[in-house]
Amino acid sequence: MADTALKEKKVHEPLFHIVKRSGLIWYKAWLIRIFAIIAALIVCALVTMMLAHQNPIKVYQTMLSGAFGTQRRIWILLQSLAMLLCVSLAVTPAFKMRFWNIGGEGQVLIGGLATAACMIVLGGKLPNALLLVVMVIASMAAGAIWAMIPAVFKAKWNTNETLFTLMMNYVGIQLVSYFSMVWEARKGSGQIGIINQDTKYGWMPVLGNYDYLLNIIIVAVITVLMYVYLKYSKHGYEIAVVGESQNTARYIGVNVKKVIIRTMLLSGAVCGIAGFLLVSGTNHTINTTTADNRGFTAIMVSWLAKFNPLFMVLTSFLLVFLQCGANEISTKFGLNKSFSDILTGIILFFIIGCEFFINYQIKFRHSHKEVQ
Amino acid sequence: MKKVIAVLLAVAMLLAFAACGDKKPLDSAEPTTGAAETPVAAGVALEDLKVGFIFLHDENSTYDLNFINAAKAAAAQLGLSDDQIILKTNINEDQACYDTAEDLVDQGCNIIFADSFGHEDFLIESAKNHPDVVYAHATGTKAHTEGLDNFHNAFASIYEGRYLAGIAAGLKLNEMIDAGEFTADEAKIGYVGAFTYAEVMSGYTSFFLGVRSVCPTATMEVTFTGSWYDETAEKEGANKLIADGCKLISQHADSMGAPTACETAGVPNVSYNGSTIAACPNTFIVSSRIDWTPYFVYLINSVVNGTEIDKDWTGDLATGSVVLTDINEAVAAPGTAEAIEAAKAKLESGELHVFDTATFTVNGEAIDSYLADVDTDADYTPDTEVITDGYFNESAFRSAPYFDVEIDGITLLDRNYG
């Protein structure tokens, strides 16, 4: 008896320890998130005052005006949101399967390249409606092939998909670079310029006078379809099981190789659609910056939303809002882009960090004793 | 519960789209209110003027920094307040350029300027929507054929600056030959270019002709990077040329890659876009650059006075658009400043022409006729006779360079990029 008492005294109890929460009521989780955003804004305000010597309230106002200031800015925001969301939706099935597809960038570019190729080679030779159908099919096929190559290697020879998909990005970028020179508008310039500027062959139709409305509607439809696919379809279930445990999947008779290849085909095809929307529905040209790092940002969007397509609307909105606001800050206050990157970094740090407090609980020594 | 909220939020987003849909169209041709729609012919009061600038990168690129500084200098010179100029940096050469231009019009800009070649098509699309806003674009080629009254191109006769910088390089070669560092036959210079594009070809050829005007035995090797800004590739390109026996390096690409490679190797360098003396005190000789301030002042004054703006404006030595930085006396050969001044006076008086056909040959023969692709088309069809009065008349038929002749004495090490 005395021995055990002595032992208890000797055991050093840490000041606090971390316990996994078994499940947090939804409003408490949202309270933590809101608190994190407020904390982030306060830290950003301090940084703004100390480093840039600007009034933080004015900086926040500028951010809001950069994102929502005019009707046009709202459209631009929605368009950017749609494009980021589309790529995020594309990479999500792969991530849910725990297949680290960081090749979204390349898959989008290849889809865009296929679209541009159709516009240049077939423009004027096919009726425009048929041309658009050909372009959609070509872009989906190109994206799917680009994603399938690492998937097949993974399924057959268990190669590292992270490195493989990453490397495929660079191959894609170089191909776009190459074709920029093949199709350059002015000799030696390495720039394609607007494709079919006068004839508008292969340009996605514009609904009413709203340049980006059709893009936005298409992505909204893809969002709902992806949600249903992942949540209610047999394929979606198989993806979830393979993601949780490949052995379990095999045990219940899921053909893991087949699921990997099929899911990556889907992932690549949707990336291809994103490329199509960027080239045919937005830029009407292609260059190496067409994907604009969306293939990488999408990973964050997808993870932040825990692979839920509907939440991804929110997370991509957050990132696009930060980006639009940040651009306006650098214009209005003459601050370098790096400063807005710092603010974005701080906000993301808090938002990602707060997930820790939603999943885990910190118990201090004192409170621990009380509980006992 | 989470699901319900997510659905609600998604629905809210869709409703937001629909709500936006009820409002007036974005690209309506109907005039909106504001200073932007004041007819140009009537002129705009200086204090009501607003100028929007679109830059491809930000001040970290020497190319864009040169424009940013000029925009600020022009504003200061004309007494424009800070909120009369709007500088938009990091604008890609795609729909972002169009969106930015439209946003600048929304903010009441009367003049919109873009600095990068790839911006042109998108700027034209915006120019079509707003006939009363003046659009100006540097390095572009389409203004004279596009048929838009409010769209203008501008460039400068930078080949004259390159030629003068070439004289400094040639004198340096002579100095090194006299010092016995190498023989006159080994006087080979190297050049790091971006693309096999007329602007670059015009640049290295004029530089080479400047060198050869004082060092007749000089030859040149050119390598291309396939990018306007790729520090590693430019550095590697310069190193390759130095290893190949080049005694002096110049470049037409926008990073510090080539100058720093020269400083490390101790090889003299003639720079572009601005002085690199701070980073390269032991190798920097001189740099040519375009000063855009005179063009911006001209553009703004034209709008204020309601006078017509040139479709193709070409700045030159006389307008102060083509300038050389201070010469680094520690590296340059003695007498460089005097030789440059003498040649400059001759260029200005018209006594000397950079591309005088008597000074170069193509495949061993002098040329007396050359059709250049001045009017842009998909097949690069040559359309204009550009040799007049015994010289290749660069930047006369449009502001952007069209000299793309490969002359004897210059070896292209690679030609993958064109």
In short:
The complex is a heterodimer of chains A (372) and B (418). By secondary structure, chain A is mainly alpha-helical.
Your description of this structure?
The complex is a heterodimer of chains A (372) and B (418). Chain A is 74% helix and 3% strand. By secondary structure, chain A is mostly helical. Chain A has a domain at 76-324: ABC transporter involved in vitamin B12 uptake, BtuC, CATH 1.10.3470. The model of chain A is unreliable at 368-372 (pLDDT under 50). Chain B has 418 residues and is of the alpha/beta class. In chain B, 36% of the residues lie in helices and 17% in strands. Chain B has a seven-stranded mixed beta sheet, with helices on both faces. In chain B, strands 2-1-3-4-5-11 form a six-stranded parallel beta sheet, with helices on both faces. In chain B, strands 13-14 form a two-stranded antiparallel ribbon. In chain B, helix 2 links the parallel strand 1 and strand 2 (85-88). In chain B, helix 6 packs across helix 7 (198-214), helix 6 packs antiparallel against helix 11 and helix 8 packs parallel to helix 9. Chain B is globular. The N and C termini of chain B lie far apart (59 Å). The model of chain B is unreliable at 14-40 (pLDDT under 50). At the A-B interface, helix 4, helix 8 and helix 13 of A face helix 1, strand 2, helix 3, helix 4 and helix 7 of B.
C-alpha Rg of chain B, in Å?
A: 24 Å
How many beta-strand segments of chain A? 2
The total of helices of chain A stands at 15
Q: State the total count of DSSP E strands of chain B.
A: 17
What's the order of the H and E elements of chain A?
HEHHHHHHHHHHHHHEH
Q: For the record, give the distance between the C-alpha atoms at the N and C termini of chain B, rounded to a whole number.
A: 59 Å
Assign the CATH topology of the domain at 158-289 and 322-365 and 393-412 in chain B: Rossmann fold
* Class computed from helices, strands and strand pairing of chain B: alpha/beta
Task: Give the overall silhouette of chain A.
Answer: globular
Fraction in helix of chain B: 25-40%
Largest interface, Cβ cutoff 8 Å? A-B, 50 and 56 residues
Whole-number mean pLDDT of chain B: 89
CATH architecture call of the domain at 158-289 and 322-365 and 393-412 in chain B: 3-Layer(aba) Sandwich
- As a percent range, the share of helical residues of chain A equals over 70%
CA radius of gyration of chain A is 24 Å
Succession of helices and strands of chain B: HEHEHEHEHEHEHEHEHEEHEEHEEEEE
